[in-house]
Predict the structure.
Amino acid sequence: MASTTALLLLLTILSSLHLPTVFSFEFQVGEIEGWVVPHSNATTLYYNHWASEKRFQIGDSLRFRYKKDSVMVVDEVDYKKCNSTHPIFFSNTGNTVYQLDESGPYYFISGVAEHCHKGQKMIVKVMTPEDSSSRSGSTSSSTSDSSAATLSLGASKLVLFQFVLSTVAAYLF
């Protein structure tokens, strides 16, 4: 009888916690080919087409893999002109991860002006938190295939959950 009561108490507590899950994705820019100058037969909007098929939200990240190149975040004016003299962010490590930490547009270009003029640039639009609530049902299969998902719970809620479980286990046994 006591164990049944304890089990009901545990289920009540767990159902009232409403532990939210937060998904963040790491997108591989350019898929298998990576961050390269688009082929001569590709459209100059190659990376923008790739980005338009994705739904980016705050907390997601972009992985740029490249050789003998760089990646920069610039403002809209510098993006249009392929101007790399005033980057907001610069990396030339060959394996750059860039965290998308706020909603709105991000403008990426190659640091090599010739590469940028040939189409190695991209606009990523990060959804507002209100827009991201519809994300789960509308991601394309290519997004889920090419993205590494990370499931994370808030640390304080995880600690609370462990405490409740250990307390109930101690009570039962």
Summary: Confidence is low (pLDDT under 50) at residues 135-156. Strands lie at 22-28, 56-57, 61-65, 71-74, 89-91, 95-99, 104-110, 121-127, 147-152. The longest strand covers residues 22-28. The radius of gyration is 22 Å.
